[in-house]
């Protein structure tokens, strides 16, 4: 079946056409230009932009896939979690299309979209272990099915992407911070500064990243006090040491998540990492080594499918479609929608 996917839960207006594991088109219209001057995503501006741009994003996807609305079999749309105005824009558009075309409507959890992406890109079998690590999220999930997730733990405060962004700000590097901090860390000495690795002594998979920025701020100010500023090498060493701290926390907690996951003796054990921070090569190397050591297959979807996009929504929609899930006009936009409570509300609104 050919599924049209729509995504508008944050600051990307996206539309995609997916058939099975084939992505026929994936259009992502970013809005960073609209929000740049405000230093963050402005919900009202985002919502209006989604409402204005969804139509164009859909047309562009149909053109790229050389198909028409009549050929699609169902419409999948992000119904949460996210900025409510944007989610409402997407859900209204999807309802309009579903009604006008008389096609099934399927509400998709945005996080489920991210979590199912390794099935789209690498065909992973259930259950697999997922580390979702981005600017807004950091959690371990055992993915058992399109509506069946077990959360093993996650950050209790900041997400690692946020920590990278704050670090870049503190050091005067460009945004988004991840790529600029990673670049600056090249040639840095990761052992020069010992930044904290919080919660490593605590059982379980919970993590904390908010203390890192305080430690980093203190270190920066100490360097400024001592020598009036940071040299190029100081900055490299700070970035490398920061990146190593994030890697160590994530790798160590992943080790614990793997141990819980392997207790279930999965047939083809695998770890998938997704989210913007998954682009980080130091982190990837650490996770890859850990997987080699513990006998797991390691996968990381290509970045364009790791960050927000509609192909993941269409794909998640296609798995739900195959399992008979349908929503009706009562589908509502949900600002909050934790993954491990996925089954109940979805089944409740399905036919
Ligand atoms: P979410 O979609 O989870 O609500 P988001 O839209 O902020 O959050 P993504 O687009 O998945 O998340 O990822 C963006 C984040 O990833 C930013 O915080 C950015 O700094 C970080 N990031 C991108 N590239 C890298 C990198 N190479 N190393 C570390 N972090 C990175
Ligand atoms: Fe996302």
What does it look like?
The protein starts with a strand and ends with a helix. The longest helix has 31 residues, at 232-262. The strands form 2 sheets. A 5-stranded mixed beta sheet has the order 3-2-1-4-5, sandwiched between helices. The protein has a 5-stranded mixed beta sheet with strand order 8-7-6-9-10, with helices on both faces. The relative contact order is 0.18. Mean pLDDT is 93; it is low at 342-351. It is an alpha/beta fold. 47% of the residues lie in helices and 18% in strands. Helix 2 runs parallel beside helix 3, helix 5 (160-171) crosses helix 6 (177-185) and helix 5 (160-171) packs parallel to helix 7 (210-227). The chain has 12 helices and 10 strands. Residues 110, 114, 308 line the site of fe (iii) ion. Fe cation binds at residues 110, 114, 308. This is tRNA N6-adenosine threonylcarbamoyltransferase. Belongs to the KAE1 / TsaD family.
DSSP strand count? 10
The 3D shape can be described as globular
Distance between the termini: 19 Å
* Structural class computed from helices and strand pairing: alpha/beta
Family: Belongs to the KAE1 / TsaD family.
Protein name: tRNA N6-adenosine threonylcarbamoyltransferase
Keywords: Acyltransferase, Cytoplasm, Iron, Metal-binding, Transferase, tRNA processing
Binding site for Fe cation: 110, 114, 308
